[in-house]
User: Which sequence fits this backbone?
């Protein structure tokens, strides 16, 4: 429905009336199209044996970001809600786990070095509960969803339109990043939180732990992908698309569109929070520069380029853009924002439905011939 | 006598004024509908017919006056509660859900439990599936049930939305210009569809097309500049000099 379905290719190949010239080509392509997702999954599973430790770490970060991108497809593609503030939810998940890992590294009764440098002598009260792994895991999952749900409800229950929602969500990202920077003594300020050595007792430098965490990330990508497809196929998915297409019609059929949008938004924030926590784990850092206005816009660009109606497209877009970003910005750090801006404009004008939409068009054209 | 008439009274629009910053789209307008009745409201463009529908379904709130449905004032209720009480409206521009299939459009309307968390399931429940099949048959879209609603022809979209409104089970149905953009044959089918609803539903139809109004054979209420102008059967309205002058004044 939302992805270039490999079945379409195989159906084209099997169609009895297909034109003789193109039919053999389509027939030859059919098994390839069908095998492609499985091939990609196989490669992803085998990545720890195929890639260097450095490249595996990059891939793991990008996979984490793909979890966030899946949530954006849900709300933006299927719910029509453009969020320019998903960095906030990414950050909440990331900081929650980072605080836990900082605490875990501390000797009994000490406080993190940056707090000492800022003249603090004790932990802030709200750091304390994060010493519990259970609390931290719960916070990673619940905190972003809760904040997002409240935010979304506060805006939409006043029937504010989509453009205003985007602007207000951007203001939220700005406020969040500003707050993090200004509260240096408890957030690590501009530098954020970094230098973690273990998670739940597992040393983060051990190769087996690194590989395991990569597979955990991959498994969450796959689970989120499958779960979201199921959700879209349910009546909830129907309601969400209905709220996007005709909010008034839905309202005057006796439904309340706001809770549907709020639930979808909270779910996408939950995915963003998981993404942020996993990213922090793989990157070894979370900082305001990763959660503010510009990163929030970049997240939208990944999905716009991959295709905002397509979960597979969003994963692909996120991986491709981040790989490109990594290679370009390591050589020319200043250039990346321009390249991304240009890419975004090109894609939005030439392929409004992104790579996934372009692929679907090609397949349909091949089938029509 | 009084008891008898209030028992059959379904809707009373009581002295309603809607003020758009000084401009009164409805100006002390009143009308009543009996249970099972079909009523046509006509009036020149801008007379306030759509605003009347908007006010009944809670999209627009009256500045003055009240809307009584089954004797209770509904003019301050949230929209979904007005629908839940049994009022549903077809919009002037077809208000269908274009990316859903025809059957899903009706299935959504036919759902009785509209709380969002009850949507965490698959397909249309069996009881409601029967309603969906009936409605599809009634509006002649059975063969199109799996089509994306956005791909329907204009007339089919109108029927689909009428089907959705019927599927909600609402006792009071408001149809705002249901034949707009339809040819004579389609218009006739629409009149038949409204007839087929029988006495179980009360229908308020807004339309311009006098031949359609004649086919409906219902009492006609005429509005002008947000006010009540006249009421009677089609023949009486046709012969009403005041009505004629209002229409002539606007078409000249
Ligand atoms: N939201 C609004 N704000 C201001 N004026 C409005 C609004 N909606 C309708 N009107 C005006 O109210 C009058 C009645 O409109 P409407 O009820 O749509 O008329 P009808 O359906 O009879 O053609 C028109 O003059 C229209 O311009
Ligand atoms: Mg109108």
Assistant:
């Amino acid at each position: 429905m939302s992805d270039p379905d490999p079945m379409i290719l195989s159906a084209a190949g099997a169609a009895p009336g297909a034109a003789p010239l193109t039919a053999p080509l389509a027939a030859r392509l059919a098994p390839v199209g069908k095998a492609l997702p499985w091939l990609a999954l196989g490669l992803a599973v085998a990545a720890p044996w195929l890639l260097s430790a450095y490249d595996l770490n990059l891939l793991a970060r990008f996979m984490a970001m793909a979890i966030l991108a899946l949530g954006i497809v849900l709300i933006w593609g299927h719910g029509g809600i453009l969020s320019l503030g998903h960095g906030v939810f990414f950050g909440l998940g990331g900081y929650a786990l980072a605080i836990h890992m900082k605490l875990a590294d501390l000797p009994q009764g000490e406080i993190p070095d940056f707090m000492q440098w800022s003249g603090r002598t004790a932990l802030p009260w709200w750091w304390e509960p994060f010493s519990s792994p259970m609390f931290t895991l719960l916070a990673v999952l619940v905190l972003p969803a809760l904040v997002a749900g409240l935010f979304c409800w506060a805006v939409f229950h006043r029937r504010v339109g989509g453009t205003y929602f985007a602007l207000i969500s951007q203001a939220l990202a700005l406020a969040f990043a500003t707050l993090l920077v200004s509260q240096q003594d408890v957030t690590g300020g501009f530098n954020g939180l970094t230098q973690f050595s273990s998670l739940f007792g597992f040393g983060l430098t051990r190769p087996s732990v690194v590989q395991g965490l990569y597979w955990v990330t991959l498994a969450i990508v796959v689970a989120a992908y499958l779960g979201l497809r199921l959700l879209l196929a349910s009546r909830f998915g129907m309601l969400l698309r209905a709220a996007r297409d005709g909010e008034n019609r839905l309202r005057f059929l006796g439904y309340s569109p706001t809770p549907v949008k709020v639930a979808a938004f909270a779910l996408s924030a939950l995915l963003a929070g998981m993404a942020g926590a996993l990213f922090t784990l793989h990157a070894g850092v979370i900082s305001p520069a990763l959660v503010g206005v510009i990163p929030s816009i970049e997240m939208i660009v990944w999905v716009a380029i991959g295709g905002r109606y397509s979960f597979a497209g969003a994963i692909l877009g996120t991986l491709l853009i981040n790989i490109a970003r990594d290679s370009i910005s390591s050589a020319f750090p200043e250039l990346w924002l321009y390249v991304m801006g240009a890419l975004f404009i090109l894609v939005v004008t030439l392929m409004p439905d992104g790579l996934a939409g372009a692929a679907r068009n090609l397949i349909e054209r091949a089938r029509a011939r | 006598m009084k008891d008898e008439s209030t028992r059959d009274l379904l809707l009373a629009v009581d002295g309603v004024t809607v003020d758009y910053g000084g401009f009164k789209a409805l100006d002390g307008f009143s009308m009543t509908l009996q249970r099972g009745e079909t009523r046509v409201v006509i009036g020149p463009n801008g007379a306030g017919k759509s605003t009347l529908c908007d006010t009944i379904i809670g999209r627009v709130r009256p500045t003055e006056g009240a809307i009584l449905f089954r004797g209770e004032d509904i003019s301050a209720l949230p929209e979904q509660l007005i629908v839940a009480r049994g009022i549903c409206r077809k919009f002037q521009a077809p208000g269908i859900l274009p990316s859903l299939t025809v059957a899903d459009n009706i299935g959504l309307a036919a759902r009785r439990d509209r709380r969002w968390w009850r949507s965490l399931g698959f397909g249309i429940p069996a009881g409601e599936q029967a309603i969906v099949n009936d409605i599809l048959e009634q509006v002649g879209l059975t063969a199109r049930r799996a089509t994306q609603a956005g791909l329907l022809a204009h007339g089919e979209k109108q029927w689909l939305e009428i089907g959705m409104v019927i599927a909600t089970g609402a006792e009071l149905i408001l149809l705002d210009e249901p034949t707009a953009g339809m040819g004579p044959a389609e218009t006739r089918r629409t009149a038949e569809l409204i007839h087929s609803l029988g006495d179980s539903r009360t229908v308020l139809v807004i339309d311009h097309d006098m031949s359609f109004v004649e086919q409906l054979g219902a009492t006609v209420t005429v509005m002008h500049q947000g006010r009540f102008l006249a009421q009677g059967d089609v023949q009486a309205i046709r012969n009403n000099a005041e009505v004629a002058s209002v229409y002539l004044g606007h078409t000249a």
Chain B has one domain: 4-96+152-246. Chain B has ten helices and ten strands.
